[in-house]
Structures are given as C-alpha cells and as structure tokens.
Amino acid sequence: MKESLKPGIKYEHKFKVLPSKTVPALYPESEEFVAMPEVFATGYLVGLLEWACIKAINPHLDWPKEQTVGTHIDVSHEAATPPGLEVKATVELIAVEGKKLTFAVAAHDGVDLISKGRHERFVVSREKFDARLGEKSGA
C-alpha cells in the first residue's frame, strides 16, 4: 500500500445499463428471475459499486501484486433502473484501518438516487491469496 492510500479518495464511475445486467439475466437458470421485470439487478448494482471502489484505490496500491477483496456490503436499492439509462456510482474512502478499507457509496441513474450505503474491502497480496485458495481447493 502506498502512503497516498488515505481517507478522502473519491471516484465516480459511469455505466450504461444493458439488458444483460437486468434481473432476468442475473440467474437465467432461475425461472423466478426470468419472470421478473427487466430492470438493473441488485447483484449487478453491488458489482458496479465494488468496481468503482477498486478503480478509486488501485492507483494507491502496488497493483496488480496488491489487490482488494470485498468483505462487507450494506447498501439500499431504492429505485428501479431500466436498460439504457446511465448509472453513476460515487464512492469515497472514509476509513483506513490497517488493510481494512471502508467506503461511503451511492449510485444515481439520472432520475433517482438508486443506492446508498457502505462497502468494506481488504487489501491482499495476490500471490498469498492465490496460494490460500489453492490450499482450500485441494490443488
């Protein structure tokens, strides 16, 4: 981690919602999901917020040797977003406690605030992470 990894880092990430990022596409194996409205899926929203946090801090890490993994997410999903709208994710690093990073996150679709909350990530050594994963999978 570089000395520049400090609270106050902000980032905005924009993403146009495609039909492939809607509820029916989230788990096409699920007939219940397939029958639901074609709106931005909460699962993809969470991924977008994580992506924005990663983009915000990568310049402050020894990327790709150091990476971050999501460890906690606490966000609302307050409004439906149809395909074609652009969602802007806004994130701010609000706390650094050793390797634990906490972000305030929000997303807006140009019409409504669609999400707000907090997200935690943990800085890991990619080499050590892969080694532990290999042990877990029996490789």
Structure description:
The chain has helices at 23-26, 31-34, 42-57, 126-137, and strands at 10-16, 66-75, 86-97, 100-108, 113-125. With 139 residues, the protein is α+β, with helices and mostly antiparallel strands. The chain has a five-stranded antiparallel beta sheet. The longest helix has 16 residues, at 42-57. The model has no long low-confidence stretch (mean pLDDT 97).
Q: Features of this protein?
A:
139 residues; alpha+beta; Thiol Ester Dehydrase, Chain A; 4 helices; hydrolase; FlK-like_dom; FlK
Uncertain segments: none
For the largest sheet, list the strands in their spatial order: 1-3-4-5-2
- Characterize the biggest β-sheet: 5 strands, antiparallel
The global form is: globular
Compute the CA-based radius of gyration: 17 Å
User: What is the H level of CATH, i.e. the homologous superfamily?
Assistant: Hotdog Thioesterase
Order of helix and strand elements from N to C terminus = EHHHEEEEH
Quickly give the structural class: alpha+beta
Beta fraction of the residues? Answer: 35-45%
The portion of residues assigned to helices is: 25-40%
| CATH topology label | Thiol Ester Dehydrase, Chain A
> Mean pLDDT, nearest integer?
97
Q: Give the N-terminus to C-terminus distance in angstroms.
A: 29 Å
CATH architecture descriptor name: Roll
The number of distinct β-strands equals: 5
Q: What is the highest CATH level, the class?
A: Alpha Beta
Number of domains: 1
